[in-house]
Amino acid sequence: xxxxxxxxxxxxxxxxxxxxxxxxxxxxxxxxxxxxxxxxxxxxxxxxxxxxxxxxxxxxxxxxxxxxxxxxxxxxxxxxxxxxxxxxxxxxxxxxxxxxxxxxxxxxxxxxxxxxxxxxxxxxxxxxxxxxxxxxxxxxxxxxxxxxxxxxxxxxxxxxxxxxxxxxxxxxxxxxxxxxxxxxxxxxxxxxxxxxxxxxxxxxxxxxxxxxxxxxxxxxxxxxxxxxxxxxxxxxxxxxxxxxxxxxxxxxxxxxxxxxxxxxxxxxxxxxxxxxxxxxxxxxxxxxxxxxxxxxxxxxxxxxxxxxxxxxxxxxxxxxxxxxxxxxxxxxxxxxxxxxxxxxxxxxxxxxxxxxxxxxxxxxxxxxxxxxxxxxxxxxxxxxxxxxxxxxxxxxxxxxxxxxxxxxxxxxxxxxxxxxxxxxxxxxxxxxxxxxxxxxxxxxxxxxxxxxxxxxxxxxxxxxxxxxxxx
Length: 471
Ligand SMILES: NC(=O)c1ccc[n+]([C@@H]2O[C@H](COP(=O)([O-])OP(=O)(O)OC[C@H]3O[C@@H](n4cnc5c(N)ncnc54)[C@H](O)[C@@H]3O)[C@@H](O)[C@H]2O)c1
Ligand SMILES: O=c1ccn([C@@H]2O[C@H](COP(=O)(O)OP(=O)(O)O[C@H]3O[C@H](CO)[C@@H](O)[C@H](O)[C@H]3O)[C@@H](O)[C@H]2O)c(=O)[nH]1
Description:
This protein is an alpha/beta fold. The protein has helices at residues 18-28, 41-47, 61-68, 79-85, 111-123, 140-151, 172-177, 190-203, 217-248, 252-260, 281-294, 298-325, 353-363, 377-387, 393-399, 406-410, 423-426, 430-435, 452-458, and strands at residues 8-12, 33-37, 73-76, 88-91, 128-132, 158-162, 182-186, 212-216, 334-338, 367-371, 400-402, 415-418, 442-445, 461-464. The protein is built from 19 helices and 14 strands.
């Protein structure tokens, strides 16, 4: 049997990955009909909104959707129809950390993957290539295959591929247009290799052949967890060094620059920060920790666990620095927090360091004013309620104000905390900010974003993560 020529793709899950990934496939492959399905009607409606008020913010995404939607890109809640008509199905559903039961707090919750797989098994009436796009523990494809094969109808077959996604939020469209690599894992049988080639041909419409890597299924699944673990490990390493810098008078920018010049280390992903956030790093490392423990490799588990522990330490260390610097108490003090998203150029707040810092400030009974250019108000209230379950929403709302500009946030405050690296925070009129703040006026830069010397000349007392010199 020759590889199937893919003409109809269905993507189950219209989230941060399914939406942008399959929108780009539709744009680059006008001969393929791409239908993205989701059970969440509000989300699908937003993808279909006439004024392109899409459910997620990603630079360049609206442009892609404008070109392809209605041509060969469709969004729908009719999951069964999407499955039935497709010859290739991406499973791009959420795989959050389990909240209860075996492996709670570490293992990935594979319930959504299993439900989507069972749905495919239940409604498919022709052969399908099923592609695991979600990030999953090693050997999940085997469980999917067992479910699908146990339910396949006569004359139909299912081939399972692993095709993890490496896009980063905020740069998703650029990453998808020009990926470092596309990874496809398959069984090494002839059928597995044929299915792999069918998917490789889809990417071949815009990705150079040498960037499409084909490997075994389990290597592909593990590579995704490994890539995130190694990236997060770099940040925890530089953040650990930032603590040494603060204690010794060394400067983390200079240290990162010096070590990054070594071509074996390289300069990227060495920016000290208030801690990494996002829906993936912590979840995927905990997943790796769980996998290692399940495989009776406790030393390996402890090694990776430390990356997350260092991140927790960095976040609480930063909160403590703010309290210590503001004369050991922030009770009743007014603090502006600039940035709520987990990184710049996204409205996503999942595991954002900002949430932990604000939770700490609320526990100290400070008043906090938040500004973020992209995060919705309702999301902020939800995140803070979940982060501080000992406080009622009413109490939180008495202590927290959400405003619509950085200048407004900083008015009459004793301190400004930069929690997300939005470019606009660098370009605020800091002279005006200073004039309108209580004195002494403190700035805490958790993102190495502002020119500390310039701010000091204006009169601010500046504390920057990873810099020995203070105030
Ligand atoms: N967010 C990222 O930047 C990123 C990058 C690479 C990989 N990943 C991985 O990709 C996966 C998806 O992540 P995401 O951020 O897009 O999640 P998300 O929560 O934004 O989207 C998942 C969507 O799947 C839908 N869904 C769940 N079960 C369904 C079902 N049975 N039928 C139809 N729809 C269903 C949900 O309603 C939701 O809209 C995760 O495994 C994640 O780890 C995420
Ligand atoms: O030098 C750095 C780089 C990043 N960060 C922080 O690290 C977090 C994650 O950033 P980034 O990796 O850019 O964004 P994500 O969207 O979480 O992307 C990661 O997680 C995705 C989901 O698995 C993968 O697909 C991507 O390859 C991987 O980079 C954010 O809070 C950043 O502010 C730093 O503190 N310092």
